[in-house]
């Protein structure tokens, strides 16, 4: 795949290195001369670096955004990430646009109206992971996808959960939801219809549409 990453901070450089090591064609954009000139030659070998402002059409055109499979806007500025996402989608019809959310208060803007297919809010994600680690019997959102249309959530089943002792197929979960994993005793259980849930199971579920309350009722009560 051809991947363009806007923002050569620690996040962008790490992404570039990992994707390049996986065999993808990666271009890294940054508008800071010192960042580009002082790039770590040894850690991102094979990555194409470009000095320019990714918020400008000319820059995205110069790096071949029209032929990119993915554009990731991961700068430290939410406004820049939104502009980059919008230009990538509207001007160059990039199939997949990912954006980093720095300020959780801005997360509501990172949707398809701004060309964002997937947004990642690090503060929200970390908060969700902390809640997931310390909370039993609560429905915790971990990640929003497709501009909030889909959500990845987790619940650690309490002893009084109505799902205890039931097969997944018998829970009556809405069609718009799917259990994607069950973590039990430090191991991942691949969920099947006949998987019987137990107390302290960590159930990871993908929810779309407006059925979150129904899923919560089935797993939490």
Would you mind describing this structure in some detail?
- This protein is an alpha/beta fold.
- The protein folds into two domains: 119 residues, Rossmann fold; 85 residues, Regulator of K+ conductance, C-terminal domain (Alpha-Beta Plaits).
- 26% of the residues lie in helices and 28% in strands.
- A six-stranded parallel β-sheet has the order 3-2-1-4-5-6, sandwiched between helices.
- The longest helix has 13 residues.
Give a short synopsis of this structure.
With 221 residues, this protein is α/β, with parallel strands linked by helices.
Distance between the termini: 44 Å
SSE topology string: EHEHEHEHEEHEEEEEH
CATH topology call of the largest domain: Rossmann fold
Radius of gyration of CA atoms, rounded to a whole number: 20 Å
SS strand fraction: 25-35%
Helix content range of the residues, please?
25-40%
Spatially, the strands of the biggest sheet line up as 3-2-1-4-5-6
Mean pLDDT: 87
Q: What count of structural domains?
A: 2
Tally of alpha and pi helices: 6
The parts where pLDDT drops under 50 for at least 5 residues are none
Overall 3D geometry? Answer: elongated
CATH hierarchy, class of the largest domain: Alpha Beta
Largest sheet: 6 strands, parallel
Named at the architecture level, the CATH assignment of the largest domain is 3-Layer(aba) Sandwich
What is the count of β-strands? 11
The CATH superfamily label of the largest domain reads NAD(P)-binding Rossmann-like Domain
Helix/strand structural class:
alpha/beta
